[in-house]
Amino acid sequence: MEVSAEQVLFMRRSGQEDMMKALVTYFSQTGNTEKVARAIYDAIETAEKDIVPISDVRDVAPYDVIFCGFPVQAHNVPSVVESFIEGLPEGTRLALFGTHGSLRGGELAVQAFYQAITISPKLSILGTFGCRGKVKRSLLEALMKKSEHMAWAIEAQGAAGHPDRADLEDAAEFARTMITKSRALG
Fold it and tell me: Has residue 124 been placed in a domain?
């Protein structure tokens, strides 16, 4: 459901826009996913919003929408993120975002997002966003020594310097779109 410019203007004038409470939570080991989380947080225009590492989230009940971020690890969602998603109450509005070393839209990242979406069918998934993130040199070097991982390691070298400014701008646009979508759902 799309929201017209007139509807957004009405919500702003009537104060409805600022009533939403948003949580941005993330799991980040190298800082890539945290950078994206902060771009999302900064783009959210609501009266109440919080940004908290996933390990520090205690209660999700007060939030109207949750943004949950993770690094794709070995084609999968990290177990700490999987546990968090499994524990969310039925009907929770969830927007997923992640970082990965693959090309944008690459099969490995798509597999991880599909896994994340299907963890809990009781949730309302608003959308997903993924971008490249720099992979640790030590990991790349280890993977280059294994023939079954060499092709991916070569591809992942191109993720150096990511997330970059364009990635963070795209993440901000994703955040604004997900908030608008959540508001439109009522």
Answer: yes
Please indicate, yes or no, if residue 153 is contained in any of the structural domains: no
CATH of the domain at 69: 3.40.50.360
CA 130 to CA 52: how far, in whole Å? 19
User: What distance, in Å, lies between the first and last C-alpha atoms of the chain?
Assistant: 11
* Number of residues that this document lists for the chain: 186
| Residue 101 DSSP SS3 | coil
How many domains does the chain contain in total? 1
Structure confidence by residue, pLDDT tens digits, 66-116:
999 999 988 899 999 999 999 999 999 999 999 988 777 778 888 999 999
What residue type is assigned to position 139 of the chain? L
Q: What is the model's pTM?
A: 0.85
pLDDT for residue 57: 98
Degrees to nearest 5, angle at CA 27 with 158 and 159: 5
- Tokens 């999968």, residue located: 76
DSSP code of residue 125: E
